[in-house]
Design a protein that fits this description.
- With 320 residues, this protein is α/β, with parallel strands linked by helices.
- The chain is 41% helix and 16% strand.
- The strands form 2 sheets. A 7-stranded parallel β-sheet has the order 3-2-1-7-8-9-10, sandwiched between helices. A 3-stranded antiparallel β-sheet has the order 5-4-6, covered by helices on one side.
- The termini are close together.
């Protein structure tokens, strides 16, 4: 085996992708490129987008914090919510969201603002917005109804309406920096994260499918730990693989799947929210399954170190 630095393009957002990034950044043989969804419409990001006309900063901020030199201190400072501000509509935002939005307004360029934040945090790795064009996530449900907005799409499936398909309106084009990052990638990693609102949207951006098609190495999916509400009660890891393969036009080569189960009290707590451990399902024959106990603790989060070591095992075997 001849070791060399590998470039990996990590697509997604939400709270799942930072768990992956925080583990991968410690590997000196990996150059991590976080390629982040930009279609958040809820919470602090949604209000800042509507009030200031900036791009939603939340997902990019979380990924930059995960890659920070001192993540704990950075999170303590930049995820603190400010109780009062002169503009009453802006109270309660995190310091990091406001800082990133202010840097965007000052520079007039969201990517320049992200690069500035990376420099301040001493990030080991890169963060790229999948697109800096504004768009909304739309969904059609199995009952024929439609909705617009990430929060609304998520709410519908939580209420028990299975998602039939999602799309972006208007159609947007991949950011040149994100396209170049995928062009340098030895492998593509997708997930973990909310399937229809964090993982699929960046794959729908014009140019992503072509960029991923050029990647010579594997496409790896980190399967989620839980289903997402009543609308995804029967959803499996195999369903996720087939859907992503269809969107990308190429197979998912490997899926990392959780084989651990937490205690009954933890399962009951999530069951009250109609969330249950994700089943493997009938996996396509061309997709390799790597199973390991990734769930560790009372909160549904992938264990960073276990996930990072498993990912390195997959990448080293396939690329080195």
């Amino acid at each position: 085996m001849r070791l060399r630095e590998l470039h990996v393009g990590c697509l997604g957002g939400g709270t799942g992708l930072p768990s992956l990034l925080g583990g991968l950044k410690a590997n000196p043989w990996l150059q991590v490129h976080a390629i982040v969804t930009m279609f958040d419409s809820g919470g602090s990001s949604g209000v800042l987008r509507d009030e200031l006309g900036v791009l939603p900063p939340g997902d990019v901020l979380k990924c930059a914090l995960a890659l920070a030199r001192d993540e704990g201190e950075a999170r303590r400072v930049l995820l603190t919510r400010l109780p009062t501000l002169e503009h009453r509509r802006l109270g309660g935002h995190t310091g990091g969201n406001l800082l990133l939005s202010m840097m965007e307004q000052f520079s007039g360029d969201f990517q320049a603002a992200v690069d500035g934040l990376r420099a301040v945090l001493g990030c080991r790795g890169y963060v790229w917005p999948i697109s800096t064009e504004r768009a909304s996530l739309c969904a059609e449900y199995a009952d024929g109804g439609t909705t617009t907005g990430e929060v609304e799409v998520d709410a519908g499936q939580l209420e028990g309406r299975p998602v039939r398909r999602v799309w972006l309106s208007p159609s947007v084009v991949i950011h040149p920096a994100a396209r170049d990052a995928l062009g340098r990638a030895d492998a593509v990693i997708i997930g973990p994260g909310s399937f229809f609102t964090s993982l699929v949207p960046p794959l729908l951006v014009e140019g992503v499918r072509d960029a991923v098609a050029q990647v010579q190495g594997p496409v790896v999916l980190v399967a989620n730990l839980l289903t997402e509400g009543r609308g995804m009660a029967d959803f499996t890891a195999a369903d996720a693989v087939r859907h992503i393969s269809s969107v990308l036009g190429r197979p998912v080569d490997t899926v990392l799947f959780n084989a651990a189960r937490p205690g009954r009290d933890v399962l009951d707590r999530y069951a009250a929210e109609h969330k249950h451990p994700l089943a493997l399902g009938d996996m396509p024959h061309e997709t390799e399954v790597v199973q390991a106990p990734f769930w560790h603790g009372p909160i549904a989060r992938h264990h960073r170190r276990r996930l990072a070591y498993a990912m390195w095992g997959v990448l080293a075997r396939r690329l080195l």
